[in-house]
Amino acid sequence: MLIMLVVAASGCLSWLQYVTIFSWVKLAVTLFKYSPQVYMNFRTKSTEAVSIYQFLMDLTGGTLSLVQMGVIAYNFDDWKTFIGDFTKLGLAALTILYDS
User: Fold this and answer.
1) What is the dihedral of CA 62, 91, 94, 42, to 10 degrees?
2) CA dist., res. 60 & res. 94, Å (int)
3) What share of the chain is helix, strand, coil (3-state, %, to 5)?
4) Residues 23, 84: contact at Cβ < 8 Å?
């Protein structure tokens, strides 16, 4: 990440591209952070060690993120913005998928 910061500061990479790279990193981390818990729940056929409140908060956050994107797209009558921010859409979809 420090190398990307130096590249962005030197002008070879725009600051928007720099921030976009971090959003893709967050999407990848989210994909991998849920996978071990899903595998353990599948293997043991139990969710005994999992807090229901964590799932409810994640599910609420993912749902409200999708609602926010929908409201913004509706208000500006520009539905390209709904799918234009792929990382936000991906994070919300992954969260809802893993929590349901």
Assistant:
1) -90
2) 13
3) 80, 0, 20
4) no
Distance CA 92, CA 59 (A): 9
pLDDT score at 85? 82
End-to-end CA distance of the chain: 33
Mean pLDDT calculated for residue range 30-40: 85
Is the separation of the CB atoms in 27 and 94 below 8 Å?
A: yes
Q: How far is CA 70 from CA 9, 44, 75, 86, in A?
A: 34, 37, 9, 13
Name the burial class of residue 62, with classes exposed (0-12), middle (13-18) and buried (19+) by CB atoms within 10 angstroms of its CB: buried
Contact status, residue 67 vs residue 30, Cβ threshold 8 Å: no
DSSP letter at 8?
Answer: H
pLDDT, tens digit (0-9, with 9 covering 90-100), for 40-96: 888 988 878 778 898 889 889 899 999 999 999 899 988 887 888 888 888 898 888
